[in-house]
Specification:
single chain; about 210 residues; mainly beta; 2 domains; 4-stranded antiparallel β-sheet; about 10% helix; DUF2460
Length: about 210
């Protein structure tokens, strides 16, 4: 699958709507009870970056981005303005935002992740598109330096330590991240409101597995 490591212009995605979706199969039994099952272990996000009244320069930037991706052919990065940090959107990133693993004295490779909690239930989401330069890491509360203690693959979210963290060590990280998506249409329709502004009512995008 072809993926372009470029982010959809954030100024154009701001104001978009969308979020996670799940797929649940529900069977209603004769006694009225239900059996519910999900074939998806992970949610999938959809967004619509439909642009209201914007300058013609913004419309041109949208068309240029769409054409460079060849419509649905190539994936790209997307900033989800409602969920793009390891912490709450109103907070600053911290090295202990997310516990991503515990050391065993042997393993050196770890995947960035984000844990969602509600009550006693949790969901762990893999973070595969961290924003370059935003990731900060700690081992048992001690700051780690990229290039000295670890290296990070910004295209996969894989963290590799040069020496394995000791057994029981808490490995934590803070970061910003993007969502890997593609356009969910091979056609962009625009209209000109006047000589200086236009609009693109619907620009659907959907999360992809990478």
């Amino acid at each position: 699958m072809s993926f372009h490591e470029i982010r959809f212009p954030a100024r154009l995605s701001f104001g978009s709507h969308g979020g996670p979706e799940r797929r649940t199969d529900i069977v209603t039994l004769a006694n009225g009870h239900e059996e519910r099952n999900s074939p998806w272990a992970h949610s999938r996000r959809r967004y619509d970056a439909g642009i209201g009244m914007r300058s013609l320069d913004d419309i041109e930037a949208l068309i240029a981005f769409f054409e460079a991706r060849h419509g649905q052919l190539h994936g790209f990065r997307w900033k989800d303005w409602s969920d793009f940090k390891s912490c709450k959107p109103s907070q600053d990133i911290g090295r202990e935002d997310q516990v991503i693993a515990h050391g065993d004295g042997q393993t050196t490779v770890f995947q960035l992740s984000k844990t969602y909690r509600s009550g006693e239930q949790t969901y762990v989401r893999q973070i595969q598109k961290p924003v370059p330069g935003s990731v900060i890491v700690a081992v048992h509360g001690v700051d780690q330096t990229e290039g000295v203690h670890f290296e990070l693959d910004n295209e996969t979210g894989v963290l590799t330590f040069f020496a394995p963290p000791f057994d029981g060590a808490v490995i934590s990280a803070g970061y910003e991240f993007d969502v890997p998506v593609r356009f969910d249409t091979d056609r962009i329709q625009t209209s000109m409101a006047n000589f200086q502004a236009g609009e693109a009512p619907s620009v659907p995008v959907v999360e992809i597995r990478v």
